[in-house]
Design goal:
The structure is a homodimer. By secondary structure, chain A is of the alpha/beta class. Chain A has two domains: 5-137, Rossmann fold, CATH 3.40.50; 146-200, Winged helix-like DNA-binding domain superfamily/Winged helix DNA-binding domain (Arc Repressor Mutant, subunit A), CATH 1.10.10. Helix content of chain A is 50%, strand content 15%. The first copy, chain A, has a six-stranded parallel sheet with strand order 2-1-3-4-5-6, sandwiched between helices. The longest helix of chain A has 14 residues, at 172-185. The A-B interface holds A 12-20, 22-23, 25-26, 84, 86, 105-111, 113-114, 156-158, 160, 188-196 and B 12-20, 22-23, 25-26, 84, 86, 105-111, 113-114, 157-160, 188-196. The structure holds a DNA duplex.
Chain lengths: 204, 204
Amino acid sequence: MSHTIKVLLAEDQSMVREALAALLGLEDDIEVVAQVARGDEVLAAARAHGVDVALLDIEMPGMTGIEAAAQVHKALPDVKLVVLTTFGRPGYLRTAMEAGADAFLVKDAPAAQLAEAVRKVLAGERVIDPTLAAAALAEGANPLTDREREVLRAAEDGSTNAELAAKLHLSQGTVRNYLSTAIQKLAVRNRAEAARLAREKGWL
Amino acid sequence: MSHTIKVLLAEDQSMVREALAALLGLEDDIEVVAQVARGDEVLAAARAHGVDVALLDIEMPGMTGIEAAAQVHKALPDVKLVVLTTFGRPGYLRTAMEAGADAFLVKDAPAAQLAEAVRKVLAGERVIDPTLAAAALAEGANPLTDREREVLRAAEDGSTNAELAAKLHLSQGTVRNYLSTAIQKLAVRNRAEAARLAREKGWL
DNA sequence: AGTGCCGGATGACAGATGTCATACGACGAA
DNA sequence: TTCGTCGTATGACATCTGTCATCCGGCACT
């Protein structure tokens, strides 16, 4: 090994973040040179520390790990990207790969896979759970249009049609139409089920 | 120190669990002697390994960390209990304390607090984030009756009144009444908002 | 014995939600 | 150029949801 691998760790829960750092710290060839708790701090930190690999949680304040991955991929194309998440939503996998991620790990995989993934992506390999990859392919693409997604996302918290219309600068009827088509496309019976299902599939 | 502190770690996401184990492993006086990924395995493991402290995540399959804490507290009253969770829901804090927990930590607290909490509970202290404690007291008790809670919980996924009625062996009208009173008690405008709010406060 | 709350139920009503047909302009593919 | 799709909108209609008044039996507290 010519030099240690410099890793950036992005995860909002400090206990988990520092625990992962401790875990990676046990590896001789890996060094965690930077830690951030927000998605919108990833790019600057990656640049400042000249990291080799960025390890990104998806759920973060400021910006999701996937958005951060896209930023880094564009600005620093040599930095390898590992996306780490709680949920194996196939939809997440798809968008993460489109954002330029080199690896996609779920947090309930064994911890040993983490260091292994770091080494593999640096060697130019891609690391994806085969089960998840199959699920992502089987599931097919997001059937919702941009607007349908937007409206459904806004409706998740229980807002009424009137509120949604105001928030999105649409007429109430249009809001109802979008929700109605979304409900039909997802083959469910109301907006709450539609939101649940779409969220679960990573389509929101 | 007469002997090392024997710790049981219960957390379903293996990567996080093993990372926390690595973190605690860095402490000279602490030894992680058992790890489980399910709430319903906690008691047996605690008994088998004669642990001093059990570190329990709340969200786990099989049984929540709080339910597991209650079990252990009853069966092995000398075992100290640390409840660890993603969300600082004051409602969780309340029920955790009622279940006999000695410490309540949120995962976005600094990692150093974890080892510190383990030592403190063993010394007979209780460890609670003061901000959370204040919030729990300010918030007051759960205003919902048992049935209202049950119906609201069942309604979360978008089930219709008819489905809820069938599932809970009630009439449709009764379901509507419970949801209606819950909505009023929580001062919101529909079941979705009610579910969101109650969930957030740890009242479900 | 009376008061009040909880679980359970009914019926009536207003308002919100979901469906459907229909329309128009913009745009991209054939 | 024509066809299909998307975004946007309206109106009519059926159904679902939320509110309210009212009722009953059980139970706890005074």
